[in-house]
Specification:
Shape: globular
Largest sheet: 4 strands, antiparallel
Structural class: alpha+beta
Strand content: 35-45%
Length: 91
């Protein structure tokens, strides 16, 4: 059981990255709460805050499906539970 998670996507800019990742999230019934994306020197970067409270898959299953989609899109995808992300970034 997990609530919020943080997703990062980085890779060479190309058509379909947002659509591919969003579609994968929809299949898992993950809600996108916030998203920011930009292109820096030809690299696509995106951070999403996700709500997994109604997810139809475990966190590990969601992570695996997103990693697989990232490989297809040739982008680096990372997802972390919010509490783990916060504990890693707190002094």
């Amino acid at each position: 059981d997990y609530m919020k998670s943080i997703l990062t996507v980085i890779g060479k800019d190309q058509v379909g990255i947002i659509a591919g990742i969003s579609c994968e999230l929809q299949k898992c019934n993950m809600n996108i709460l916030n998203v920011t994306q930009t292109i820096m020197d030809g690299y696509f970067t995106m951070i999403m805050i996700l709500d997994g409270s109604n997810a139809n898959a475990s966190f590990d299953e969601v992570r695996k499906s997103l990693l697989k989609k990232g490989e297809e899109l040739k982008v680096d995808v990372k997802i972390q539970r919010e509490e783990i992300f916060n504990s890693m970034h707190t002094l």
